[in-house]
Design the sequence.
């Protein structure tokens, strides 16, 4: 990369970091997924244009900024902001009012006299109902089908069929924008939608969380969390019945908790049997 390209990349990285209100150490920790103490110099080198992150880090940074990696590294290929604005029937003034900027700023963006900050590109994308990649000239499809197919592995025809099913069931409306329709369809294709099966699974998960909450908030005495000078952390649900109750508040009875746990166990077991035997 040239010195100019490194500086442009560094400016974008700095924008992303500042948008999250992160220090350099916090930012490198988020990017790498491990403690960033003492590593602020790495981020400073990126932001000052001395060097660039590796591919893995670039991908993580782009995901944080909700922008394509290609834009982070290479910048805009072709500015389609004006084209998308007109297609959405916005005048310069009405679009400026909608996004909270001045008409002069929008005009400068459209003529490439000024480049929007990363947050603005995402805002324009939401208002105009087109992918950021389309606005930047990185995709030629205003509906982003090529991007969805690449990201999910589902073909356009498969997604469209799922959209029609969701519209028939009332979980989507024909008036919903295309990005919402595609996103919801992919959610169901991934098995994450609001289905009977997922409702039962969610109920089982909720029982686990509720039992954990009751045990720790109603029974465990924080003052008794130390034994022999060692801290005893949150107990695993599978060990609750074996626990002797010495960490409970003095006025709470282990027998009562054991009964609560027994009821939860029975409910979880019944839901597990239902999941296994019912034809959804």
Sequence:
């Amino acid at each position: 990369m040239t010195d100019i390209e490194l500086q442009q990349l560094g400016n974008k990285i700095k924008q992303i970091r500042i948008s999250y209100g992160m220090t350099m150490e916090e930012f490198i920790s988020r990017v790498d997924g491990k403690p960033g103490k003492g590593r602020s110099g790495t981020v400073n080198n990126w932001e000052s244009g001395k060097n660039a992150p590796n591919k893995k880090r670039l991908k993580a940074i782009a995901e944080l900024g909700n922008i394509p990696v290609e834009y982070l590294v290479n910048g805009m290929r072709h500015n389609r902001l004006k084209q998308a604005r007109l297609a959405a029937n916005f005048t310069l003034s009405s679009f400026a009012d909608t996004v909270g900027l001045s008409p002069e700023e929008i005009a400068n963006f459209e003529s490439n006299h000024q480049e929007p900050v990363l947050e603005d590109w995402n805002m324009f994308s939401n208002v105009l109902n087109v992918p950021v990649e389309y606005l930047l000239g990185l995709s030629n499809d205003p509906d982003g089908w090529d991007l969805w197919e690449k990201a999910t592995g589902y073909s356009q025809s498969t997604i469209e069929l799922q959209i029609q099913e969701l519209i028939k069931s009332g979980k989507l409306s024909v008036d919903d924008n295309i990005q919402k329709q595609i996103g919801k369809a992919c959610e169901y294709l991934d098995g994450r939608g609001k289905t009977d099966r997922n409702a039962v699974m969610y109920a089982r998960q909720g029982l686990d969380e509720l039992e954990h909450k009751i045990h720790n908030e109603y029974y465990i005495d924080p003052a008794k969390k130390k034994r022999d000078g060692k801290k005893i952390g949150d107990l695993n649900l599978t060990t609750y019945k074996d626990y002797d109750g010495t960490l409970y508040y003095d006025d709470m009875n282990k027998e009562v908790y054991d009964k609560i746990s027994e009821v939860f166990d029975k409910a979880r077991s019944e839901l597990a049997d239902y999941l296994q035997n019912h034809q959804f």
User: Anything to note?
Assistant: The chain has a mean pLDDT of 88. The chain has four domains: 3-74, 81-142, 146-189, 196-277. The first helix runs from residue 3 to 19.
